[in-house]
Design brief:
Helix content is 48%, strand content 0%. By secondary structure, the protein is an all-alpha fold.
């Protein structure tokens, strides 16, 4: 699965990043201002946008370390 502009839009919107700012997949999401409420909103938006459900036991802090770790978790659900 290639990186999706939908995925990037969801992260940019929830993190308050301008659309013209490229998302660095290796920057810790905490550096972009990720907090627990934002993480919940991202999960909801990803589930709705990609028609998947993250199992409760998969939603851990490590999944939200970077855009890459979150993308990898999403990719597992969509493959």
């Amino acid at each position: 699965m290639q990186r999706s502009t939908d995925f990037e839009k969801i992260l940019q919107t929830n993190l308050g990043l301008p659309a013209e700012r490229p998302l660095d997949y290796d920057t810790p999401l905490a550096d972009y201002g990720l907090d627990s409420l934002t993480a919940v909103n991202i999960v909801v938006d990803l589930e709705q946008g990609f028609d998947v459900t993250f199992p409760d036991d998969r939603i851990m802090f490590a999944m939200f370390h970077t855009a890459r770790t979150l993308w990898d978790a999403l990719s597992e659900l969509t493959s």
